Amino acid sequence: MAERIMLGLGDFRFEVGTAAYQSMKRSQAFRWGKQDRIGRLPALQFTGPDLQAVELTGVIHTAFRGGLGQIPRMREMAALGTPLELVAGTGTVLGLWCITEVSETGTVLTDDGRPRKVEFTLKLQEYGDDAPDGGVPDETPGPAGGEEDQP
Fold this sequence. Notes:
Layout: E1 5-9, E2 12-15, E3 20-37, E4 40-61, H1 70-79, E5 84-88, E6 93-109, E7 115-126
Antiparallel strand pairs: 1-2, 1-5, 3-4, 4-7, 5-6, 6-7
């Protein structure tokens, strides 16, 4: 029986039977620039929303499907330095995100030191749009220097 996917990050799947997260914390800040004024208190000027952040905390029971290889796989994905598509279990595409931190705590150790239970935290940061209109960026590079070749 196939497990229900809770969340997809690139080709990694968070499922109940593998790396299941118990909590998902999502936050977003909003930027306000301080403008100094002569003889008056400074004023704030809204400069726009900041990037969103997501923090997943969960537990892996290594005797189940997925085993000890799941955390190293998260680290390998982070080390590639490539934004990954984040998709909710409902199918909603949440855009491109970057892994900024992977941490783990292994407990309930076997006699050779392997953990039976691994608690993990995965921190993600929204990548942001590359295209000015929020669409897909043009992948066709122009001539060096950004100017057209002269005949």
